Amino acid sequence: MPELPDVEGFRRVLAEHGRGRRVAGVRVLDTSVLHDVTARALDAALSGCRFDEPDRLGKWLIARTDGPSVLIHFGMTGELVWCEPGAEGHRHDRVVVDVGDGELRYRDMRKLKGLWFAEDEAAVATLLAAEGPDALSLDREGLDGALSGSRRRLKAALMDQGTVAGLGNLLVDEILWRARLRPDRRGADLDAAERAALHREMRRVLRESVRAGRVPPRRSWLTGARDEPDPHCPRCGTALRRDRVGGRSTVWCPHCQDGS
DNA sequence: TCAGTTGTTTATAT
DNA sequence: AATATAAACAACTG
Fold it and tell me: Do residues A249 and A242 make contact, with C-beta atoms less than 8 angstroms apart?
């Protein structure tokens, strides 16, 4: 689930329910989601701290306080959920932050990622050092620059968080489908018109997805068709292809994308 | 039982 | 050197 738009949704949850409130306590229900801090140290460091405006870079959520920060990466199945006081537990709740009038819960079935602790801004910067520019604020020149220096396929280049931060499997397929570019095209081979289309469609897909807090599975989107039993292109009706590109299952239209 | 999954890292191969 | 591929991580679904 979590790509840039999903994490942006979690950032809004934290902004609405965390910002300005004090941490009353942190309960760690599964220590395996803590990556560089113990449950006891996390509770001790965070209790009494007041949440600031949360930030996001790529798929990372940055929970700042008037003390240390917590960085959350949601992996494939993580989410941040707001719960009223006394709300019943969920099987996959891993960390619960009590903020007095309710709880912020890190919930994650597969636990592929989780929480990192950052004592100060220098530690935050270190944890995020490998991230490329955030996809949401990437301009034409930035995207051109990210693609020009490499012979990689578009799918692999756009999925690489060090090249562009925030795009995942669904988003990249959606953007390439809208821009009518085959996922196995070499990014450096695109002409000016193709690069412009790629940037334009990235912006459009991101804008609508961020608003929804997910890649919306609308019938008119690739995302709304790709998981059907016999998926067809919402634009031209051609049977969609599913291949492995860049190690990930990739859905694309053999007619629209670099066709006609 | 087996394949597949919206993410990332590591090892290995080309 | 850069790029591609497979496996591993973990837990579940069909």
Answer: yes
pLDDT tens for A127-141 read 999 999 999 999 999
Question: Measured between alpha carbons, how far is A242 from A138 in angstroms, rounded to an integer?
Answer: 28
d(CA A172, CA A141): 19
Query: Is-contact A238 A229, C-beta < 8 A?
Result: no
Q: Quote the tokens at residue A202.
A: 């990235």
Q: Which of A3, A8, A103, A174 is catalytic?
A: A3
Are residues A120 and A29 in contact, defined by beta-carbon separation less than 8 angstroms?
no
Please name which of A170, A185, A161 lies closest in space to residue A251, comparing C-alpha atoms: A170
User: How far is it, in rounded angstroms, from Cα A182 to Cα A153?
Assistant: 9
Nearest nt (C1') from A242 Cα: B4
In eight-state DSSP terms, residue A229 is S
Query: pTM for the whole thing?
Result: 0.96
Separation of alpha carbons A187 and A179, rounded Å: 13
For A59-95, what is each residue's pLDDT tens digit? 999 999 999 999 999 999 999 999 999 899 999 999 9
User: Out of A59, A105, A113, A153, which one is annotated catalytic?
Assistant: A59
Nucleic strand B contacts from chain A, 204-233, CB < 7 Å: 214-215
* Helix pair angle (A192-212, A140-148), 10° resolution: 120
Of A206, A219, A213, A216, which is closest to residue A172 (Cα–Cα)?
Answer: A206
Residue A248 designated active-site: yes
